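Bump. Still looking for Two component transcriptional regulator, LuxR family structure tokens.
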Amino acid sequence: MRVLLVDDHELFRAGLALLIKELFPDVELLHANTLSLGVNLAITERPDIVFLDLELPDGHGSDALIQLKDARPSLPVVVVSADESVESVGRCLELRAMGYVPKSSSPEALHAAIVAVLSGGVFLPAASIVGLKRAAGTDETQACQSDKAQPNDRVEPWNAPGLGLTPREFETLAWLVRGLPSKAIASKMGLEDITVRKYISHLLAHFNLRRRTELIVMLAEKGITLGTLSVPHGSRERD
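Sorry for the wait, here they are.
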């Protein structure tokens, strides 16, 4: 596994690297202290996951998310930031981040984020889940999970029948969670864009949600992972 750490504080990157090495001894770590270097390494060195700070000397982390969602739409990016505001978390999810770990979190939260994201899930701290649900007007019940308890209780990923979905709907959901727009999902699945848009509408209706951000919050709250997906021969990640 290859992990890219993008943060301008060398001491923080060193500490994060030690935690990741402790969890995954065979990991290969890449370091970047600027936004431009981080984006370049994410594109050229093909890491499996990126941990991204928001406050960088040459730009904001959201700018990196914008660039990466176009250049490497399937790349899982987890934001690691001292900013714990609901607005910042929601903005990063809209830009297709697959996780958000506050710098005040425990090492267990970092482990949970890596396991969740690499298993096709998402990671959000419990406080962010509550705040995002309240902001979306869906805060019917308080999220009861703590950061430490958030690693998935289910060892195996969920499947289509377990979520009440058809196989095609399930595959659409898995690509949608990874941040791909409908045209890119259609390319990967060999379908027309209008067909994928119908699947997305069915998914949101199935879970009684209105947009992808609410879907991400629901998956994080329930600890749902969707497994890894193979890219059909001839499909380009940039698509």
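Residues 141-155, 231-239 have pLDDT under 50 and may be disordered.

Edit: fixed formatting.
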